[in-house]
Design a protein that fits this description.
Blueprint lengths: L11 H10 L4 H15 L9 H6 L6 H7 L1 H4 L1
Helix pairs in contact: 1-2
C-alpha cells in the first residue's frame, strides 16, 4: 500500500491492562495473549499445502497478494 508500518512489542501485562481499559473480558485477554505467544514461538511457521489443495491454485506470498491488491488496501 506504500504506507509505513511500525511494530512495537508490548508486555503481556501492558497488553492486558490496555484491553481491560476497554472492558474486554479477562478470558478473552488471556486467550489472545496465548495466541500471540504461540506465534512468537514460531507456531505458524510451517508451510502447508492447504491453499492449493482446496483451491486447485498455487499459493502466493503475502507480498505478492499485497502488491496485486494495493489499490484495495489503501
Amino acid at each position: 500500500s506504500g504506507k509505513q508500518l511500525r511494530y512495537e512489542s508490548v508486555s503481556d501485562v501492558a497488553f492486558g491492562a490496555e484491553m481491560a481499559r476497554f472492558d474486554v473480558p479477562p478470558d478473552y485477554i488471556r486467550d489472545v495473549s496465548e495466541l500471540c505467544a504461540f506465534y512468537d514461538r514460531g507456531g505458524a511457521e510451517a508451510v502447508v499445502s492447504a491453499v492449493s489443495d482446496l483451491s486447485g491454485q498455487p499459493a502466493i506470498p503475502f507480498s505478492a497478494f499485497a502488491r496485486d491488491h494495493a489499490a484495495i488496501l489503501r
